[in-house]
Amino acid sequence: MSGESGGTGVGPAVLSLVTGQVKRFLPRLRVGNLDDRDPDAIREMLPGMWLLITAWFRPDVRGLHHIPAKGPALIVGNHTGGILSPEVLISQLAVTSYFGAQRPFYQLAHRMVLNSPLAPMLRKFGTVEADPENGHTVLADGGLLQVFPGGDYEVYRPTSQSALVDFDRRKGFLRLALKHDVPIVPQVTIGGQETALFLARGDNIARFLGLDRTMRIKVLPIVLSAPFGITLPFAPFIPLPAKITISYLPPIDLRATYGEDPDLDKVYDDVVGQMQDVLTALQAERKLPVLG
């Protein structure tokens, strides 16, 4: 396949088709406006949204008391469920119910999440694009920030890997926490990979087509979901009503635990290892897929 724009043949035609399809679902958004978060709208929507989410996903949220009661902190979660990522909305509702709508709570999310049908509501609850500037601003202003280091790579992992934490060795969250000297609160979720049948990430295909370089997209997923079966990459779908369980772990003060100049590889292995142990235990509790 020719790497030049003037190339001919099947390769460039396939690349044009795929990138056109991806751009259709991932148009460029402004780099998150933190002012989109609306405490008044949150208070109005919270009861109805909890009722709807409880009926569909039967959320079991544990350990909210581990989140510091005040001041900045970085919540670090494993990502699940494709473009709809149910843990994003569930954690928004849970944390806001626990601490109140006035506490500044923001979530960094991939552009594909912010192009989902839930995007207008997610923005009101504090979801902004996963841009480093947004993360620095939230923590510098004393806010609570939630990140999902695995991004599109983890959120589209195969359903067979539902009980695997996979950040693809991304350590930006550690640098962010160290820069602002804030504690990390691990958040572990299970159930999202049961909302559809995630067959393959398609990361090799995305790399072959150059999507990782041109559009910061690491995957081109193959998903079997309702209502149409095979779902176009990054297209919305109707999630199966899988039970979602979320567990927050005790906060980790990186410098107090690992010293002033910690080895990021060691810290990464320890944090992900703790999360993996909890995820494995949550998987062992589940009796049946979807039913929980």
UniProtKB/TrEMBL annotation:
Q: Does the keyword Membrane apply?
A: no
Q: Which domain of life is it from?
A: Bacteria
- Reply yes or no: does the keyword Transferase apply: yes
| Record key words, sorted | Acyltransferase, Transferase
Identify the residues that the record assigns to the Phospholipid/glycerol acyltransferase domain, covering every copy.
73-192
What cellular-component terms does GO give this entry? membrane
GO molecular-function annotation terms? acyltransferase activity
Name by which UniProt lists this protein: Putative acyltransferase
Q: Organism, per UniProt?
A: Gordonia amarae NBRC 15530
